[in-house]
Amino acid sequence: MSAEPQPSAPASPVTQGDLVVGPDGLARCPWGLSTPDYVEYHDTEWGRPIRTDDDMFERLCLEAFQSGLSWLTILRKRPAFRAAFAGFSIGKVATFGEDDRARLMADAGIVRNRAKIDAAINNARVAAELPDGLSDLLWSFAPASRPRPRQLADVPAVTPESTAMAKQLKKRGFRFFGPTTAYALMQATGMVDDHLEGCVAAPA
Fold it and tell me: Can you give the pTM of this predicted structure?
């Protein structure tokens, strides 16, 4: 995992290279065993392909809100984010106005950052106008398949594809979305598979 944080593994892990073996005897990427929240996210979501526009919009927004913060903070606030942003429906968020901005800035359940809130609303409006939808645009930057990384040092933070994605989205009017955030999105939505070789959660 690159742009998202990599918390420390438990105090006395059993390691297999960079993998960590949990109490259940299963080997995982080291960040995926640090808290129950991460175990669930790592095992069931991270790296699994997402194709619907609204689901991709949710991940795009959450990755942007995570910038400068712990990913664990975002995971724990996700239910509040979903409630605040109408389930991340592109069509609904695109209609948000000043009253919604004020409501979001007053919502202690989410990250109350004016620039990030404004970016989410702006990005919904841009996404709503894409002729082929948000998912198709984002997936057009997915790289060709490559071997699964064998160690953490093999996992990049930025790639030519993520740089191209960020550049294209900026050109189309998206905000708060740079190359590092783009690569984290690629990891989270299955465009790339950065589960380490031997990880139990690696997609088949």
Answer: 0.90
